[in-house]
Amino acid sequence: MDKRLDHEDGRAVDMMLDPTAIGGNRSEVSMSSVKMTSRLKSVSQVLELLGNMPAPEPPMDLLSKTLRRIEEIGEATERVAHPSAPSQRPATQSRPHA
């Protein structure tokens, strides 16, 4: 079965997800309100079905990756906040001998 959404189906999805998305033009909606009600009911059923689908399991290494990324960000922030000072060599070592 090849089901495709047409323009009115798209409007029903928009109305369901964001009631302000149609721009307040109520005359267009009331013109085919019976048809739109049917579409809204169908959209609601599809969204409910999608909501009941199991969520994918997070990766097994999510925690270690997250902690490693936090450490990397902390190290980068530390380098920016406190750049390493130039080496403090004694003046006698930085001058050539005469």
Low-confidence stretches: none
Mean pLDDT: 76
Please state the CA-atom Rg, rounded to the nearest Å. Answer: 31 Å
Reading the helices and strands in chain order gives HHHHH
Question: How many strands in all?
Answer: 0
Shape: elongated
Report the biggest beta sheet as strand number plus sense, adding barrel if it closes.
none
Q: For the terminal residues, how far apart are their CA atoms? A: 93 Å
Return the structural class.
Answer: mainly alpha
State which percent range the strand residues make up.
under 5%
Count of DSSP helices?
Answer: 5
How much helix is in the residues? 55-70%
Give the SSE layout.
Elements: H1 7-17, H2 26-31, H3 33-52, H4 62-81, H5 91-94
What this model shows, in words?
By secondary structure, this protein is mostly helical. The protein has a domain at 7-52. It contains five helices and no strands. Helix 1 crosses helix 3. The longest helix has 20 residues, at 33-52. The chain starts with 6 loop residues before the first helix and ends with a helix. The mean pLDDT is 76.
